[in-house]
Specification:
about 35% strand, 8-stranded mixed beta sheet, about 20% helix, globular, 2,3-Dihydroxybiphenyl 1,2-Dioxygenase, domain 1, alpha+beta
Length: about 300
């Protein structure tokens, strides 16, 4: 069934994120963390220079190897963290268990754990320094809602003992694991927020943190986080870090509404395939149409639909 776009042009709850791609210096260095700690399955592609990391049939993270890519510049916008969402607390407990025995061997750093009211989360640095969150969502009826249907998030201590007790005892990320959100370091939060809201069609969901904004399609707590905490002042470059991420819309009508909104806002975009995606899987699984646009910090967004 075709879902009609919302009357105000904003994206609905039928929209979600697809994959996120990182440019890395060495697959051999980075893959063990995503496989052995996060628990994703690994498939090598493109003459061994690409790895697609999946949970069941869902591709979540794409790693593109470029041994010549420099480290991300200290002034450059880019990834704060990518966020792998697991379907329940038991699966998050399994990540904690694997991290305690495997993170050091995999070259990763466990950097924290938080209760965000809407979710519970574990935080890591992968072997090349990319921020990685693994989290599960509490049921929506338990989220703190404001009078205008935004959410209220916080950063509280997470009881790791209780989380470990709830571990399901599985060695792999279960079916239903996906990319829940990406959190970006931007040069100007207001400018980026306006792009994601006014041009792309997301909604502001929470602005309770200083120098940050959280936006999403529909009433999700956030699909994109934006912050200027580390005072980035240059657009994203061609070094290691995020290459692109996907926004998956439900149908052609919604994609056409995004096209119209981008054009009305004077934002250039390309229709169709994705430059540099030589693997032949340029669109998300099942996608039949797509566009590519860059946000104000030159981070590429691939908007796709599955027909």
């Amino acid at each position: 069934m075709t879902t009609q776009p919302s009357s105000d042009g904003s994206l609905t709850d039928d929209t979600h994120l697809g994959r996120v791609a990182l440019r890395v210096g060495s697959l051999d260095r980075v893959v063990p963390f995503y496989r052995d700690v996060v628990g994703l399955a690994v498939e090598r592609e493109r003459d061994g220079s690409r790895a697609v990391l999946s949970a069941g049939e869902i591709p979540v993270v794409v790693l593109d190897e470029d041994s010549d890519a420099p480290e991300r510049g200290r002034r450059e916008a880019g990834l704060f963290h990518l966020a792998v969402r697991v379907p329940d607390r038991g699966a998050l407990g399994d990540v904690l268990s694997r991290a305690r025995t495997r993170a050091t061997e995999a070259g990763a750093t466990f950097s924290g754990a938080s209760d965000h009211l809407v979710s519970e989360a574990l935080y890591f640095r992968d072997p090349e320094g990319n921020g990685v969150e693994v989290y599960y969502d509490r049921p929506r009826e338990e989220w703190p809602w404001t009078d205008d249907r935004r959410v209220s998030m916080d950063t509280l201590a997470l009881d790791l003992g209780s989380l470990a007790d709830d571990a399901a005892g599985e060695d792999r990320a279960p079916d239903g694991t996906d990319l829940g959100h990406v959190h970006l370091e931007v040069t100007n939060v207001s400018r980026s927020r306006d792009f994601y809201v006014d041009a792309l069609g997301m909604r502001v969901r929470d602005e309770g943190y200083p120098s940050a904004s959280f936006v999403a399609a529909g009433e999700y707590h956030h699909h994109v986080g934006l912050n200027s905490w580390n005072t980035r002042s240059a657009p994203a470059g061609e070094g290691r870090g995020i290459e692109w991420f996907e926004v998956v819309v439900p149908d052609a009508a919604t994609l056409d509404a995004v096209r119209e909104s981008l054009a009305d806002g004077g934002h250039g975009f390309d229709d169709g395939g994705f430059d540099g995606d030589e693997s032949g899987d340029g669109d998300a699984a099942g996608a039949t149409d797509s566009l590519v646009v860059s946000d104000p910090d030159e981070i590429q967004i691939r908007v796709v639909h599955g027909g």
